[in-house]
Write a structure and sequence with these properties.
The chain is α/β, with parallel strands linked by helices. It is 36% helix and 15% strand. The strands form three sheets. The protein has an eight-stranded parallel sheet. A two-stranded antiparallel sheet has the order 1-2. The chain has a two-stranded antiparallel sheet with strand order 6-7. The structure holds 2'-monophosphoadenosine-5'-diphosphate.
Length: 342
């Protein structure tokens, strides 16, 4: 029998979501080319019918095709059942370069384009995907606030934002959720960002809670990487680091065998145990894995098991990304007085 999925409050503005979400990126991007549309719609519908109604996308996934997929999936009575999150401002340019934008004209145009692709009138939670360090966060927030007032978005989120940016943004309009990478092998946000969110009553959405599949499958995962899998460029997935990091997976495996659950469930349960303000959003393209991930909600961890898990993941080798330029480490923005409108 499938475990039942509880609900949780995300942030302090009234948003309620399923206690676990579904990351949809891998359906269209990052982990090999786009997956068959019908199959992905079946996964999304299965998720909604199982009570995992908090769906996570971005305009950059694909780019654009992931939102189009969700637009198709959210027909026939499905829209009303979900809390849909999308994101803007992380733009993939040709020849693999990226541009980050948070200027007001861009924010508005991006939101309107996302609404069209999603075939919706309103996005429940709209995140700035990456912080534009050329634009004062107050300026970006000013436009997002207008979008809330116009009913185009309900709640505002930030992803990969620094503590100072979160604080300044929250002073303009309440931030409902901060999305960040948080898992057994990515814990650096615990120092500053997570306490800031807690102080301000902001919900925490943990992305890549399975370490992009490494914590659930270990080194064997690398054998099945398609040619265009983005993890091939990630430091933690380089052979010399995998040789070291595989010990983390081996220990997770051993503990999960002892607990009678799977490594994926154990890694996810660790995130669930961080508090009732934390919602992990594992990504999957497979119903079988999805069902397993729901099972994490019924794995109970004792304080000593938490400590045991944490000790093993302390010495991971390799950064989270090939470059940390667009992460919270470099996400402070200029003073509002410097903004000249462009
Ligand atoms: P992201 O947030 O980047 O999607 P993640 O949630 O940490 O990262 O991990 C996603 C990866 O874990 C995907 O490669 C997914 O593969 P499938 O689409 O094949 O499922 C994999 N994954 C998800 N749940 C899993 C499970 N229960 N067992 C094994 N692998 C799983």
């Amino acid at each position: 029998m499938m475990a039942s999925v509880g609900r949780m409050k995300l942030g302090s503005q009234g948003l309620e979501v399923s206690a676990q979400g579904l990351g949809c990126m891998g359906m269209s991007d990052a982990y090999g080319s786009r997956k068959p549309e019908e199959e992905m719609i079946a996964v999304i519908h299965h998720s909604i019918n199982s009570g995992i109604t908090f769906l996570d996308t971005s305009d950059v996934y694909g780019p654009h095709t992931n939102e189009i997929l969700l637009g198709k999936a959210l027909k026939e009575g499905m829209r009303e059942k979900v809390e849909l999150a999308s994101k803007f401002g992380n733009i993939v340019l040709e020849e693999g370069k990226r541009e980050i934008r948070g200027d007001p004209a861009y924010v508005r145009a991006a939101c309107e384009a996302s609404l069209k692709r999603l075939q919706l009138d309103c996005i429940d939670l709209y995140y700035q995907h990456r912080i534009d360090t050329r634009v004062p966060i107050e300026v970006t927030m000013g436009e997002l606030k207008k979008l809330v007032e116009e009913g185009k978005i309900k709640y505002i989120g930030l992803s990969e934002a620094s503590a100072s940016t979160i604080r300044r943004a929250h002073a303009v309009h309440p931030i409902t959720a901060v999305q960040l990478e948080w898992s057994l092998w990515s814990r650096d946000a615990e120092e500053d960002i997570i306490p800031t969110c807690r102080e301000l009553g902001i919900g925490i959405v943990a992305y890549s809670p399975l370490g992009r599949g490494f914590l659930s499958s270990g080194p064997i995962l690398l054998e099945s990487f398609p040619a265009d899998d983005r993890r091939k460029t990630h430091p933690r997935f380089q052979p010399e680091n995998v040789e070291h990091n595989k010990r983390i997976f081996e220990r997770i495996s051993e503990i999960s065998t002892r607990k009678g659950c799977t490594p994926a469930q154990l890694a996810l349960a660790w995130v669930h145990h961080q508090g009732n303000d934390v919602c992990p959003i594992p990504g999957t393209t497979k119903i079988e894995n999805f069902n397993q991930n729901i099972g994490a909600l019924s794995v109970k961890l004792m304080p000593e098991e938490m400590v045991e898990l944490e000790s093993l993941a302390l010495d991971v080798k390799g950064d989270r990304y090939p470059s940390l330029t667009h992460t919270w480490k470099y996400a402070d923005t200029p003073d509002p007085s410097t903004w000249n409108g462009q």
